[in-house]
Amino acid sequence: MELRFTKMNGAGNDFVVIDNRSRQFSLDGKTIARLCDRHRGVGADGLLAVEPAEGQADFRMRYYNADGGEAEMCGNGARCFARYSARLMPEKPASLSFETQAGVITAKLEGDLVSLDMGRPTDHRAPQVFDLGGASHEIHFLNTGVPHAVVFVSDVEKVDVQNLGRTIRRHEAFAPKGTNANFAQALEKNHLVLRTYERGVEGETLACGTGVCATALLHALATGAASPVHVTVRGGDTMRVDFTKDADGSFASAKLTGPADFVFDGVISL
Residue 230 sits in a domain of what CATH number? Predict the structure, then answer.
């Protein structure tokens, strides 16, 4: 069987995107992992599939990590999903909505930029100090569609992201599903630089949208920084996180804005 796909990237986080509105394709984890393999497949951090919505949204987004496992949400993937889905509509919309395992997401299209209403973050935890590899690290935690642990450091270039990220990702405190691990350095009060170890990719990626969102919000909580917060990712792009708070200081909403680019269209035999 031949699979038509589009290769896209959001701030360097790259994806295979397919139109599965007919539900013609039933991709198992092994096939998805092969498609995402950078030597034997298309190569990507994950796969996005467009499916019919079950409710009142325009579409349903299915997201699979490069290891073939399905995840609740992906911020950079959701922006790419929005631009791709807009191409499937009779007239290009100014905005659209789609279902995810993390809830319904609304996307606003602004040229090659996409703004996502990320909704209300959940599962905020007070910072905890962990002894990891013989050193103490204060870890902050927030779920912005998927779980994110964040460590604020003085110099992200000195962090062993692969090893420390893997240790945090699989720490018993985040069992059984694990967590993504982020390492952030403040350049200014409202500007951070970020490196992320992604669960499911099992390595550092050039960007992680939900990680950008979680890190910006946790930074705002820790420092009192006002909205918006800008975050520069490993791939060199800078994303913007706008947020609002309730009277009790908790986050009422978060919006993530960043690029979503088409790379190429292709066909591959399954």
Answer: 3.10.310.10
Are residues 180 and 136 part of one domain?
A: yes
Confidence of residue 52 (pLDDT cuts 50, 70, 90): very high
pLDDT greater than 90 at residue 134: no
DSSP state of 156: G
* Burial group, residue 263, by CB count within 10 angstroms (0-12, 13-18, 19+): middle
* C-alpha dihedral sign at 241, 264, 70, 83: positive
Indicate if 183 and 264 belong to the same structural domain. Answer: no
Do 102 and 35 sit in the same domain of this protein? yes
SS3 state of residue 61: strand
Average pLDDT over residues 99-126: 94
Beta strands 95-100; 59-65: pairing state: parallel
Looking at the annotation, which residues are catalytic? 74, 208
CA distance 40 to 197: 23
**Are 60 and 187 in a shared domain?**
no
Rounded Cα gap, residues 6 and 35, in angstroms = 12
Structure confidence at residue 150 (pLDDT): 98
CA distance 179 to 164: 13
Burial class of residue 89, CB neighbours in 10 A (0-12, 13-18, 19+): exposed
* Boundaries of domain holding 215: 122-259
Q: How far apart are CA 93 and CA 96, in angstroms?
A: 7
pLDDT for 145 equals 92
What is the reported pLDDT for 249?
86
Ranges of H-type helices in the chain: 29-36, 75-87, 161-169, 209-223
What per-residue confidence (pLDDT) applies to 1? 85
